[in-house]
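Protocol step 4 of 6: structure prediction from sequence.
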Amino acid sequence: MKYNKIALGFLGLVSGTLSIYLLLKWDKVFNGLEGFFTPGLIFGVILACYFGIVRARNFTYLYRLPIFIAMSWFAYYVAVWIVINLGLDKNNISSSPSIPSMFFAGCVGALILGFGFWAIKEWSEARVKYFVVLIILGGILGLTFFLGEPISQLVSIVGLKIEGGPSLMVLYIIWQTGIAFYLGYILDKAKEV
């Protein structure tokens, strides 16, 4: 069955929504970085659970799932580091990150996540084209950060208000949904699933 891209896309949407909800909730509770790195962890755990269910017939495969979770967390950590250290104006910390830094952070995050996916996928042949597309897609989706304010303004026309960082909300939901959908696409193209 070729349902992986639909299922993973939906799980990416759930993960992105849950990530932003918990990030905003923890920020109000802890007022710091305690919950800051949870989006990468949430994304990794949700996708790893799916991979574990789909591939449950191969129990030797299950020990690799923590690798994917760790790589997902690390991908998020590195992407955030890139944006903070390369993309923000040091004189104005509340400034918006630069476009190149968001693209680069998305690419690097997708690259690291791709290595985690490669570790659990057991690619018999190195599908370089899928890997390259994943990296470029990660960069393009990283730019969705800049859609947050326009979407927030558009939604306010109808009387709704997006609380707590519309740019991050758009970024997390779209990036995680898009990358998860593409990983599902790769699985659907594979002969083994």
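Step 5 (inspection) to follow. The chain has seven helices and no strands.
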